[in-house]
Predict the structure.
Amino acid sequence: MSAGDGKPREKISREPMPRQDPDVRRHNFDEVALGYSEEQAVREAGRCLRCKKRPCVSGCPVEIEIPAFIYHVAERRFDLAAAKLKEKNSLPAICGRVCPQEDQCEKMCVLGVKSEPVAIGRLERFVADFESKAGTMALPSRPAPTGRKVGVVGSGPAGLTLAGDLAKMGHDVTIFEALHKAGGVLVYGIPEFRLPKEIVKREVEYIEQLGVKVVVNFVVGKTRTVDDLLAEGFDAIFIGTGAGLPYFMNIPGENLNGVYSANEFLTRSNLMKAYLFPKYDTPIKIGRRVAVVGGGNVAMDSARTAMRLGAEEVYCIYRRSRAEMPARQEEAENALEEGMILRELTSPIGIAGNDKGWVREIRCIRMELGEPDASGRRRPVPVEGSEAGTEVDVVVMAIGQGPNPLVPATTQGLKTTKWGNIIADEATGETSLPGVFAGGDIVTGAATVILEMGAGRKAARAIDAYLRRG
């Protein structure tokens, strides 16, 4: 097959994403990726082979009809492309920015066998942004109300997706959010330079326009329990409270001033807007030298945030090599371009403080890779006698997080694993309690935004079937 200029599609180079210069962007919180122009989007869409078997769709957790929306882009029918996207995805502007397409839909792209895969995520972002700028957003038709009420605990990706789907099925849906803004990890965890909060606000407003009610400052487990909500007239409850419990290494010195969990560090900067000081007087320690422990996306977000807050040197301390880092390649590359110093094959063994109780040094030991562990990655093994210290004044622990324990602890009869995750059916989200469903990080542990959305979509179908059975 060939594109409009007669050139075989596999010979056409993938359209690069325009970005801010690294030396400029490390000093601001503006979005790094600038998005495609119309011409770039049309050229990239023209690379799609429009396969009959559509393997890219099988790689999408929310089942977007990818070749169909891309075809509309290639034909410059951007409004139709947006409508096709939103048949399956109520948060396209978010997914187009933060989902790991390279490990999902783009990984399945046939074009990627001989060339680079179609930039599906970038096209999704373009379509969503174009629709917003053009002001052409159209709401889908909704069926007659079913009279059934669904309560959604948490407004993260799983909860928002489920709420939108159920609203389009005719159900009365209310989201209960503990924080003062809706969006969950999208607002407190992901920095402005990767996902502008105005984008999240726009997507939440779309969910509300579908008929979903959003109640903030409502802590389920404190303000009301799940049992209270069921007793007050809700026919089903979905729990999507995420993984908000930070993990630490339990090494000496973790209680010193200047040691943050990544959750706290990013929440202070993102949700509480510490980066806009003095307009927002949110306290945050801005270190001259910062150590971020971990190698995932959260670690990259923390390191890049620290640089933008004014740190002169930011070290990423990771116990394996860069090849094993779980962060998206794009995010790791961005961080390194911006000046992050990677200390690979290194693991902290202690943090030392000064006489006032503030961090002054992080002590680490060198590691070498041994046999693979349960994750399939080679297990890091300490090298005896290789301990050394690095002078720092802030340490951010970004080694993962566990399930939020509040709702399970206040819901009698709700079964959990030994780690505190809610036990739920993978295909339906059904829990041990009738009418109570769960999905996303509270079930699986910390995962990606798109996998959380996929869990929300599955649970929405199951709740709809449950409600219609009476």
Remarks:
- The two ends are 51 Å apart (CA to CA).
- Residues 331 and 425 are 32 Å apart (CA to CA).
